[in-house]
Specification:
Layout (H helix, E strand, L loop, with lengths): L7 H9 L3 E4 L18 E5 L2 H13 L4 E4 L5 E3 L7 E5 L4 E4 L4 E5 L4 H10 L24 E2 L2 E2 L4 E8 L5 E5 L18 E9 L12 H6 L11 H14 L22 E3 H15 L1 H5 L3 E3 L4 E4 L1 H7 L13 E3 L7 E3 L5 H19 L8 E3 L5
Parallel strand pairs: 2-5, 3-5, 4-18
Antiparallel strand pairs: 1-2, 6-7, 7-12, 8-9, 10-11, 10-12, 13-15, 14-15, 16-17
The structure holds flavin-adenine dinucleotide.
The site of flavin-adenine dinucleotide has 34 residues, from strand 3, strand 8 and strand 12.
Length: about 375
């Protein structure tokens, strides 16, 4: 029979693994950017790739539930005592070959540190992903994306620990089914990314600008223009700061999990009905500006932020005294104003999802990973 208890023997074996530190009594509130969540059974910090692999293999063999934590910026965690060991990734090695553009980072490296170093080395390809919080190893998990770029554009392979077999090998990015805010690592527990490898462009220029707002801010006139990487990074960071999408200590608009809902992909007929309903209520000018992007045969991607706003949820909803509110800078971020509980946040998430559904018939799907709690 499998023993899933965290016995003194298991603890002793964990401490024997090099570069591992055990912490008792920590909370997920200390590990997440929402600053929410109760106590794991134990927090295990792993300072090297071998330590991560050793810890996960040991806990899996003992059938002890674990949660991999990078920067905690895409997690909604329940309050109370949680039957899970938090395995915190701190293997932050970084190798950059400025000549070839090949970059390798440990999963626990801060993602924006990787972007900074790449941009400083004159490498293009990830500048549009500047300022995304969290770790390098989590970027493939939901195929992070921003301002017209996704990690899938440059990711070549990941060093993956397959949890079913305990095998560690370099797996090509094509094996991860990377898609809009999705990979086969998200919600599946398939494996742990130990390191990532990216092929960047060594010519000092950004990827072709694909995102209207960014291109306009840079004064780009032709579609697909390329600009010096540092200029694009600075502009992206500026745009993100204006939306509360860069972590800033003490700014509660950034106590969030970023965009809380994914942009819904719906059938053309549904998008047409949403637009017609906005036209009837708010007039042609607003309806004609509705963001809608082709998303494959017969489907359209809508903007979750726009739908939330047009369903009647303004920035800062429901108002000053509420412990959990929409960001005052962006309707798509649900934020903790300092005293919220996970239940407050989940109640707000339900209110927004249900409000958009009853107004437009579109069900928004949350983007973060939920632990011990659910929106349903
Ligand atoms: C202010 C703000 C802005 C944001 N902006 C963006 C944005 O522009 N674009 C975007 O895509 N996202 C954005 N996000 C969401 C988030 O930053 C990303 O999803 C990020 O990649 C999460 O990294 P993390 O290390 O914090 O992951 P965590 O929150 O620690 O973990 C998230 C999930 O990934 C798993 N996981 C983490 N590391 C690994 C690993 N090495 N191997 C396997 N599984 C792992 C965890 O178990 C968990 O299930 C934003 C978040 C915030 C707070």
């Amino acid at each position: 029979m499998t023993d899933s208890s965290l016995t003194p023997d298991i603890r002793a074996r964990l401490t024997q693994i090099e570069d591992v530190t055990l912490e008792e009594g920590g909370t997920f509130a200390e590990l997440t950017t929402l600053h929410l969540g109760g106590r794991p059974r134990l927090t295990v910090r792993c300072g090297s790739t071998t330590a991560v692999a050793g810890v996960v293999t040991l806990l899996d063999a003992a059938a002890i539930p674990l949660l991999i934590v990078g920067g905690g910026s895409n997690l909604v965690v329940a309050e109370g005592d949680l039957d899970v060991v938090a395995v915190v990734l701190e293997n932050d090695g970084l190798e950059i070959d400025a000549g070839s553009g090949l970059v390798r980072a440990g999963a626990g490296a801060g993602w924006d540190d990787v972007v900074t170093a790449a941009v400083d080395a004159g490498l293009g390809g990830i500048e549009c992903l500047s300022g995304i919080p969290g770790s390098a190893g989590a970027t493939p998990v939901q195929n992070v994306g921003a301002y017209g770029a996704e990690i899938s554009d440059v990711l070549t392979r990941v060093l993956l620990l397959e949890r079913a077999t305990g095998e560690v090998s370099w797996v090509p990015a094509t094996d991860l089914e990377l898609a809009y805010r999705y990979s086969n690592l998200k919600f599946t527990g398939r494996g742990v990314v130990l390191e990532i490898e990216m092929q960047l462009n060594p010519d000092g220029l950004s990827s072709p600008l694909r995102f209207g707002e960014l291109a306009r801010r840079l004064g780009a006139t032709e579609s697909g223009e390329r600009r010096p990487v540092a200029e694009v990074r600075d502009t992206v960071l500026d745009l993100r700061r204006g939306k509360g999408m860069v972590l800033i200590d003490g700014d509660h608009d950034t106590w969030s999990a970023g965009s809380f809902f994914t942009n819904p992909v719906v059938e053309v007929a549904v998008a047409d009905a949403v637009q017609a309903s906005v036209r009837a209520d708010r007039g042609d000018e607003d309806a004609d500006r509705m963001p809608r992007f082709p998303a494959g045969e017969g489907t359209v991607k809508l903007s979750a932020a726009w739908l939330i706003d047009r369903a009647g949820f303004a920035k800062g909803h429901p108002g000053e005294d509420a412990p959990a509110r929409l960001s005052t800078k962006h309707t798509l971020a649900l934020t903790n104003r300092g005293s919220a509980s996970t239940s407050d946040l989940v109640a707000l998430a339900r209110e927004v999802r249900d409000g958009v559904r009853s107004r437009f018939g579109v069900t928004l799907v949350p983007e973060p990973v939920w632990v011990g709690v659910s929106i349903d």
